Amino acid sequence: MKKIIKWYILPLGILILSLVAALFAGSKSISVKDIIKVLSGGGSAFQKVIIFQVRIPRIIATASTGAALSVSGYLIQNNLNNTLASPGILGINNGAGLFVLLFACLFPYHYAGKCFAAFIGALLVTTAICILASVTGMSKTSIVLSGVAFSALCLSVIDIIISLKPETVADRVAFQIGGFNALNINSVKFAVPFIIIILIASLIMAPSLDILMLGDDVAGGLGLNIKFYRAAHILFAALLSGAAVSMCGIIGFMGLIVPNVVRLFYRGNSRGGIFLCMVIGASFLTLCDLLGRSLVYPYELPCGLFLSLIGAPFLVWMLIKKRKRLGMA
Amino acid sequence: MIEVKNLKTKYSYGDEFSVASALFENGRISGVIGKNGSGKSTLLKTLAGQRKYEGRILINQKECSEYSSMERAREVAFLPQSVKNLNMDVRTLVEHGRYPYHGNFRRMGEEDEKKVNRALELTHMKSFEKRDLYELSGGERQLAYLSMIIAQDSSMILMDEPTTYMDRIHQDEFFSILRILVKEGKGIVMVCHDIEQCFAYCDKIFLMEDRKLEYAGTPDVFTQNEQIIRRNFGIAMKKSEDEESVYPFVMKK
């Protein structure tokens, strides 16, 4: 019972609190009473627009992006037994960035399409990594190396495009800081259902992640189809970060910090780990976004900045406090 | 029971590994010995279905490659030479031994719990079940992994130098656990490092030479043809005449 409160009810409580806080705070102050009125069907037309078309989509986007990036990082780290791995290491972010840039060159005024391009880029890079890695043997090292290779390749093509067409740079910079100030409601409609489906799938398949962590020889002896599950988990990770990148640009640190924080205080199985990454990632990013848009009002800071600003010292502090081995490095 | 006929498998660098015929029976401990690089680990991995092969490997009368990976894991358990030191408690590790039965979708049932508890009791690791793997000594960790393999409850158990990190007392305990398993009808195939120990505990010995399985027989057979062991290890084995010696067979010059 104590376990359920500690690992389920407490994190869920934090998530609900942060979602509610994000709903009540914003650049246009609406009283708690009014918000409840709007939610129950009343309120003025203006208030309705603010709540239903600005705040709620934004909360949904931050929460699902936080969950998606954290779980993506967790899947990749456990899969490769490397706590330093993240979607960034595998070149998924750069792949998404490259496709956004390419799209911006070809169709400069098509905003929703850019999100889709980020998504396709993440997918293509991951597919390429998986094909390359399976040709070279699908070992953990070959996956990371293929990722680094593709990451460098994408980056060099990005640089070529910038050199030839410098006018696309402004777009790219905005995209790479990562934030929700220019959130497009179509990309939310597209990405969020997708993220939810993949999160559920990775929760279902979590036991195979536990077995993979035992190493290839032991996992094979336990009857796990190693190639299939390794590819599946990497694909899930790519789809999750692709979907997240398509909404908010590249928030790189998320996939690194949340799984490591979860791993510092939670030692159970992967299903619990994925659940905690989801809930903590969602609350953390929602709170960062809330800070970003309320702290320096009327200006807005991208939540990616707050994430690193709070997250990095927090991770260091936890590492010092725990001081024990991370367990897998 | 694992029956091997005309088995061949290739290394990535081109050398060939072959076994003309061999029989690993239930109710026995089969020891595999040989020089470093003679193919002992390859033999085990191939029998465990971890390598592509030509020829036949019959696991309980059915071809190894015809099993699905989960079905195979219910017949053959495999403990590799090096195991990971993870951020995971002993009980969780042992529960993973039940993966071939419940897969991704089913929860641990009563039967699973029973097998896990039995495995932990057999290896005397019950009191360690809440401890983390990285808090254990090398030998204890090996016992934790052995418990996982026991919980897997397969008819054959393949182990690659399982006693490497154990002190003498743990090694003796380890072999007495194996005896219990063998009495229950399980078949054990293990790669051995210590030849005296292998002669003492194994019912049948398989000698690997130049990536071929060349000789198989009881310890007595190998003491009678002493040049086979001498050729590979630079020593020979003889029956001990000293009543106080630890092992029934001892090394001689």
List keywords for this structure.
heterodimer; A: 329 residues; mainly alpha; ABC transporter involved in vitamin B12 uptake, BtuC; 14 helices; 78% helix; globular; B: 253 residues; alpha/beta; Rossmann fold; ten-stranded mixed beta sheet; two-stranded antiparallel sheet; 10 helices
CATH architecture of chain A: Orthogonal Bundle
- Report how far the terminal alpha carbons of chain A are from each other: 32 Å
At the fourth CATH level, what is the homologous superfamily of chain A? Answer: ABC transporter involved in vitamin B12 uptake, BtuC
Large-scale geometry of chain A = globular
Gyration radius over CA of chain A: 20 Å
CATH class of chain B: Alpha Beta
Any overview of this molecule?
Chain A has one domain: ABC transporter involved in vitamin B12 uptake, BtuC. Chain A is mainly α. In chain A, 47% of the residues are buried. Chain A has 14 helices and no strands. Chain A is 78% helix and 0% strand. In chain A, helix 12 runs parallel beside helix 14. Chain B is an alpha/beta fold and 253 residues long. Chain B has one domain: P-loop containing nucleotide triphosphate hydrolases (Rossmann fold, 3-Layer(aba) Sandwich). Chain B has helices at 40-47, 69-75, 90-96, 99-102, 110-122, 138-151, 168-183, 195-201, 219-224, 226-233, and strands at 2-10, 16-24, 29-34, 54-59, 62-63, 76-79, 156-160, 187-191, 204-209, 212-217, 236-239, 249-252. Chain B has a ten-stranded mixed β-sheet with strand order 5-4-1-2-10-9-3-8-7-6, sandwiched between helices. Chain B has a two-stranded antiparallel sheet with strand order 11-12. In chain B, strand 7, helix 7 (168-183) and strand 8 (187-191) form a beta-alpha-beta unit.
